[in-house]
């Protein structure tokens, strides 16, 4: 028995020593048409969205790593292609360029990387390259202008890599493991959304004029401080008082109402209900850097025209409507 235990211990020790001395080997690269091949591991996503309010300075920027059995030496060229899509409610997806027969992907070439664009890095055995495409470059290749871009549009950037053996790898022949696996991290397709950052949160001085309703009207302007509290991971803001002081004028209190203002790429709307269950809406009037004016209403037929004044050093964003 001691001999068996001793022999087993020797075997385990030898296996550990062998493993420690063996260089890491990447697993089989499971393409639909090849058992081995080349893929482009994404090691950094520096910028994968376009700012609707600042397209001129927006960019698609990622770092990729060429992985193959020859430590990236089989890379010949990487094409970066793009098309734009938009979801139109009740209609479906609209593409630029238009989709081909049977919904086939039509896209345009933006830029091409060669083997020389991939360089060695100290923390990997595989060479890396950076893809950097500005929003202006993408729009120019597509033949569109910034006026034809809307918040919510998606720019689809597709990578196609050709190796020195003449084989082509892309999001069509790559398997689900290559495109979606955490290890491979090589989707070949990157959806770059046109987003509209919103930063309306804060406490503002407000003046509510003409506030009225079935119970009565205010004799003059109602002034108070209104807080817009951001809702996590949205472009919505909870309003501290959906009547902007009107209820205090008629001897009521706001209480636990939940009324929100939504900023959809500058298009403002109001939703939610008060403590009595009445719902709220708003009608935009005007906006300058210093004053935002709109009419609030609820289904109890109460309303008023309110102006929110920007705080010092924080003007209202341009484009509010």
Please provide a written account of the structure.
The chain is elongated. The protein is mainly β. The strands form 2 sheets. Strands 1, 2, 3, 4, 5, 6, 7, 8 and 9 form a 9-stranded mixed beta sheet that branches. Strands 14-13-12-11-10-17-16-15 form an 8-stranded antiparallel beta sheet, with no helix packed on it. It has 4 helices and 17 strands. The chain folds into 2 domains: 26-195, Sandwich (Immunoglobulin-like), CATH 2.60.40; 202-309, Lipocalin. Mean pLDDT is 88; it is low at 1-27. A hairpin with a 2-residue loop joins strand 13 and strand 14. The termini are far apart.
What is the secondary structure topology, with strand pairs?
Elements: H1 2-21, E1 39-51, E2 59-67, E3 75-88, E4 92-96, E5 108-114, E6 128-134, H2 135-142, E7 154-163, E8 168-169, H3 176-180, E9 189-195, E10 202-212, E11 222-230, E12 236-239, H4 246-249, E13 258-264, E14 267-273, E15 280-287, E16 291-298, E17 303-309
Parallel strand pairs: 1-9
Antiparallel strand pairs: 1-2, 2-6, 3-4, 3-5, 3-7, 7-8, 7-9, 10-11, 10-17, 11-12, 12-13, 13-14, 15-16, 16-17
């Amino acid at each position: 028995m001691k001999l068996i235990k001793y022999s087993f211990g020797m075997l385990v020790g030898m296996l550990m020593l062998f493993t420690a001395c063996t260089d890491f080997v990447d697993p089989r690269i499971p393409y639909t048409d090849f058992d081995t091949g080349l893929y482009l591991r994404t090691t950094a996503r520096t910028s994968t969205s376009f700012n609707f309010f600042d397209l001129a300075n927006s960019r698609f920027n990622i770092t990729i790593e060429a992985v193959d059995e020859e430590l990236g030496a089989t890379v010949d060229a990487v094409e970066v292609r793009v098309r734009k899509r938009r979801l139109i409610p009740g209609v479906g997806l609209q593409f630029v360029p238009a989709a081909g027969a049977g919904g086939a992907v039509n896209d345009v070439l933006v830029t091409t990387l060669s083997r020389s664009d991939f360089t060695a890095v100290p923390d990997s055995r595989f060479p890396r390259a950076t893809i950097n495409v500005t929003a202006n470059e993408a729009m120019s290749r597509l033949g569109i202008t910034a006026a034809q871009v809307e918040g919510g549009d998606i720019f689809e950037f597709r990578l196609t890599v050709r190796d020195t053996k003449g084989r082509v790898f892309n999001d069509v022949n790559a398997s689900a493991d290559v495109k979606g696996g955490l290890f491979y991290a090589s989707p070949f397709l990157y959806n770059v959304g046109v987003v509209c950052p919103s930063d309306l949160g804060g406490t503002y001085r407000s003046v509510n004029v003409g506030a009225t309703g079935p119970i009565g009207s205010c004799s003059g302007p109602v002034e108070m401080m209104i807080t817009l509290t951001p809702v996590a991971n949205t472009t919505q803001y909870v309003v501290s008082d959906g009547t902007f002081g009107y209820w205090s004028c008629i001897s009521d209190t706001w209480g636990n109402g939940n009324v929100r203002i939504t900023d959809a790429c500058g298009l403002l709307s109001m939703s939610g209900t008060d403590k009595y269950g009445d719902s709220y809406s708003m009608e935009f009037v005007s906006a300058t850097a210093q004053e935002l004016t709109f009419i609030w209403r609820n289904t109890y037929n109460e309303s008023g025209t309110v102006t929110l004044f920007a705080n010092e050093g924080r003007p209202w964003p341009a484009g509010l409507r």
